[in-house]
Design brief:
20% strand; alpha/beta; globular; disordered N terminus; 279 residues; nine-stranded mixed beta sheet; 9 helices
Length: 279
Amino acid sequence: MNLLVVLYGLEKLRQICMYARPNANSFCNLVEVNEKNPTLVLLHGMGATAQIWEPLIAASDWPGRVVAPDFRGHGAAEWHKRYTLGSLASDVIDLLDHDERYIVLGHSMGGGVGLALGSGFFGNPPLGLAILGLKIIWSEEDLIRIPKMASKPPKIFQTRSEAIDWFLKLSGLIGIVDPTSSLVQRGIRQIEDGWMVSQDPSSFHTAPRHFLQSLGSITKMKIPIAMALGSADPVASIEDHELLPIETPIVFEGLGHNPMVEDPHLVWNWFLKFASNLS
């Protein structure tokens, strides 16, 4: 989706941009803003794209800039040889000014990237970090299965609809997002031999080892952290979060792994309450 709306006559503007890659935006909207407000950085999960945030952006009224990147190996972003939470965090930092004040809302893997940013190792840390649906417990089966997924070649499909179904399954959106929705647009791509999802299978190397390292760094972080999850989330539970030295997460009753898509207004109100308490 390419959209540029310029409202003339405003002395102060904000810019919302969804970046397919650093310095290349595919979605921009200009509206009035107080330039002192921090930037909102929205980070998607494994297998998804930045388009996953479109329902929440539509429900929000953030008074600052919003940056929502497609992570490397996802969506319209390029594939790379290296996939770690650190490399993804560095890509995010490249989208921000050196001294830019920002707050992160990350989903699943995006929450792991948020933890990497919170360490301050990759640049200026965020003012605060809110995480949705973070997978805490990784089974032995996960540790074996996921590297195998990362080593497989991408699946090629004869039809667009088959590729969409696979994208929705990989991103956890099947049964939530309609296959005809615009939210699937950057999740698939057409190639000479047919259709495929945009995600590089090698990007599965980002999890789970790097997630476990980031979780271990929470005790050293000095930024506010808030977590939330859906009560029907198949990969996260309130009991798992009890292992972390943070306040008890908020549970969204009846929602699954992608609450920002299922009920964006509910998630936005939770996040806004967290953000309003940040200095």
